[in-house]
Amino acid sequence: MSKNFSFVNDEFVDTDNAKIGIKDLGLQRGYGIFDFLKTVNDHPLHLEDHLDRFYKSAETMRLPVPYNREELTDIISQLMRKNKLPDSGIRINLTGGDSDDGYTITRPNLVISQSFLRYNPEIFDRGWKITTFEYQRQFPDVKTIDYLNAVWLQPQVKAAGADDVLYFYNDELRECPRTNIFIVTRDGIALTPANHVLPGITRKQLLGLKEFQVDEAVLTIDMLNDAAEVFITSTTKLIIPVLAVDGRTIGNGQPGPVTRDLYAALKKIQYS
Amino acid sequence: MSKNFSFVNDEFVDTDNAKIGIKDLGLQRGYGIFDFLKTVNDHPLHLEDHLDRFYKSAETMRLPVPYNREELTDIISQLMRKNKLPDSGIRINLTGGDSDDGYTITRPNLVISQSFLRYNPEIFDRGWKITTFEYQRQFPDVKTIDYLNAVWLQPQVKAAGADDVLYFYNDELRECPRTNIFIVTRDGIALTPANHVLPGITRKQLLGLKEFQVDEAVLTIDMLNDAAEVFITSTTKLIIPVLAVDGRTIGNGQPGPVTRDLYAALKKIQYS
């Protein structure tokens, strides 16, 4: 296996030796943002969307990005050339910087890492079972590094025999920790929570499909229970049909026709 | 200035070169806990209370501590001997470990650092102005590293001319990001929120003072507005009188008698 490089602040380093000082505000106060994109056959997918979101997250969280968009794009290109991983995930992590008082933002620490990632369609066929949990993410429209609740919940999710957890709050659907949720109504309309969720890039792709009825809405637990189909979306997972929620089967327990059509359309955008 | 050492996982290292791998779950997902204690004249204050809380935080967050209590106490002693800082703050930080999938807890990364800290009574005399903000900390009884909201709020706190922010939720008082709050009623009873707050060690000391009326209670915004005195407590700050809340003066704008008495009692415990 050839060496893997990461970009740390201002240089490319061997990932196994890539480190951040212990005074970093991410380590001390969980303060940071990130983004995650994938490359397919050496092409970074929806790069502009990911950079839009990354710079917006940074701005909201008052973190100055040490490189402009053009420079960051160039660094990502250089990293791809070094690592030679045509199918990969690229994570751009920006934390609050080395803070002597452990509280004040300084020059942020930037880490860009790349690892092998190739989409496997088996995850679509297998589908997901999910469980639900009442929780509202802090700064929901920002891709912060705060996954305290999500990581903590993992043993409970596994104990429930589920693949992931769907957050709801005050009876309204939100999102899974790393994916957006969609329901398909009995009229065949795909709906995703409009507010208080991360604006996912795959979610955005589906909302942009003019030949389908896909929209944002306020979604309740009742609407989830009444849905004809349910699915989740993410950069890594594309679309996964949700076949059961809290032990209750959705539809006939098989991926539904709208889910299949949207999945085919998304694959066409990304893989052809 | 002599060299400062930190303890990282299993060795003492020069703090300037002390680092953690970029795969750490603290950096990637804000997943970690910590504790902070002080030494006075080379004596670690309330060490057992801090270790109680540290191990409890770790257990709640499902983080296995790589050392038992005796070993950790010994490491802290060794660090103190190396650094020769009789008056100091010691931070014990435990994050989720180097995680290849960026989501699963592994062997936690432990960092213990020590820096100069000497209490300056001027902060009591000056007092604090605070502002309020509706917010409920996640895992409120755990000292997690999640200060996303607190760090983010700093510019707003400064713009309000305040020294810190007091969280409230559903009309009930909670805490400041790094200190507990107390109000003193017109009957001279000192009260601090009973639930949904970090169990501070200084707060615990005051609750244990048998010669004073100090208790836990459910406290509302109305009770804050009607308070004769208000003060905050922390390991670093001991007691600071709060002289104004959201621009409204508390009492006559001077430290009150109950606050002064409790402050004297606390100083006696810690400094004599």
Task: Itemize the secondary structure elements and their pairings.
The structure is a homodimer of 272-residue chains.
Chain A: E1 5-8, E2 11-14, E3 19-21, H1 25-29, E4 32-40, E5 43-44, H2 47-60, H3 69-83, E6 88-95, E7 109-116, H4 122-126, E8 128-134, H5 148-159, E9 164-169, E10 172-173, E11 180-184, E12 190-193, H6 201-207, E13 214-217, H7 221-225, E14 229-234, E15 238-245, E16 248-249, H8 257-271
Parallel strand pairs in A: 8-9, 8-15, 12-13
Antiparallel strand pairs in A: 1-2, 1-7, 4-5, 4-6, 6-7, 9-10, 11-12, 11-14, 14-15, 15-16
Main beta-sheet annotation of chain A = 9 strands, mixed
CATH class of the largest domain in chain A: Alpha Beta
CATH architecture of the largest domain in chain A: Alpha-Beta Barrel
Largest interface, counted with CB-CB under 8 A? A-B, 44 and 44 residues
CATH superfamily of the largest domain in chain A: D-amino Acid Aminotransferase, subunit A, domain 2
Poorly predicted ranges of chain A (pLDDT <50, ≥5 residues)?
Answer: none
> What would you call the shape of chain A?
globular
Commentary on this structure:
The structure is a homodimer of 272-residue chains. Chain A has 272 residues and is of the alpha+beta class. Chain A has two domains: 5-116, D-amino Acid Aminotransferase, Chain A, domain 1; 122-271, D-amino Acid Aminotransferase, Chain A, domain 2. Chain A is 29% helix and 30% strand. In chain A, the strands form two sheets. In chain A, strands 8, 9, 10, 11, 12, 13, 14, 15 and 16 form a nine-stranded mixed beta sheet that branches. A six-stranded antiparallel beta sheet of chain A has the order 2-1-7-6-4-5. In chain A, a hairpin with a 2-residue loop joins strand 1 (5-8) and strand 2 (11-14). The longest helix of chain A has 15 residues, at 69-83. The interface between A and B is large, with 44 and 44 residues.
